[in-house]
TrEMBL record:
Coiled coil: none annotated. GO terms for biological process: bile acid metabolic process. InterPro entries: KR_dom, NAD(P)-bd_dom_sf, Sc_DH/Rdtase_CS, SDR_fam. Residues 5-186 form the Ketoreductase domain. Gene3D superfamilies: NAD(P)-binding Rossmann-like Domain (3.40.50.720). It comes from the Bacteria. The keyword Zinc does not apply. Belongs to the short-chain dehydrogenases/reductases (SDR) family. This is 3-oxoacyl-ACP reductase FabG. It comes from Wansuia hejianensis. SMART domains: PKS_KR. One of its GO terms (molecular function) is oxidoreductase activity, acting on the CH-OH group of donors, NAD or NADP as acceptor. PROSITE patterns: ADH_SHORT.
Amino acid sequence: MLQDKTAVVTGGTRGIGRAVVETFLKNGAKVVLFGSRQETVDQALSELKEEHPDWTVTGLAPDLTDYSSVEKAMGQVKNQYGRIDILVNNAGISARESIYEYDPEAFKKIMDLNVNGVFNCSKAVAPIMKGQGGGSMINISSMVSLYGQPAGCGYPASKYAVNGLTKSLARELGRDQIRVNAVAPGVTRTDMVAALPEDMVQRLAATIPYGRVGEPEEVANTVLFLASELASYVTGAVISVDGAAMC
Ligand code: NAD
């Protein structure tokens, strides 16, 4: 589905991002994964290459919160592969603090990665996609971007902003044949969920009409659809992958 396409996936070393990287590679794309540290990037690359030596996958560790670092990294990808067809803005952190304990610096930090990081990557890639005649950006939002959550308000606030960027950039970049969509996962089995207390995960799972938490591959398959030509007229959408959860 993605033969001859080049994709950048942020936070591609583990969790949902890693599942997206593997799904894209299985579907013929060349992938550049971004991680927060070069060691974790190198580790992920060696695991992927051990599994499939024929896959074209490389990695970088730019500071997503710093525009010049992101612009330099996207320039390197463009120089190496000649184009960037797909950008998946996946890297993100969550929060659980109540407003009474919430450190304002922690609020700034979550906005910096989850919102400024998406803005920085989108801004750096947009001219490259425009110059080559189009592309597809997919932002990983969250079901809490639709309902909020009862603690850690910085996380849903950041994901509401991600939806805002998605819908606005879809309108702004449509004429340049750049589609911009978001996927809003529900509770998905990754390290982010493993960090939650087990009773909280059980309580969450019990409220999900489909009766279970989601798997990273289920999110990745929706990202694959949005990245592919099957979604050629889909832009500005926020697609839930959450088992019909209403948190
Ligand atoms: P995870 O913690 O397993 O992985 C997060 C990824 O982000 C990692 O690859 C990590 O390297 C990267 N990252 C973290 N901090 C970074 C930084 N400062 N700079 C660059 N990269 C950084 O999380 P996950 O569950 O796979 O989450 C991926 C995305 O999905 C996030 O945007 C998250 O908000 C969203 N999401 C997850 C769930 C869930 O239940 N797991 C639900 C809804 C949305």
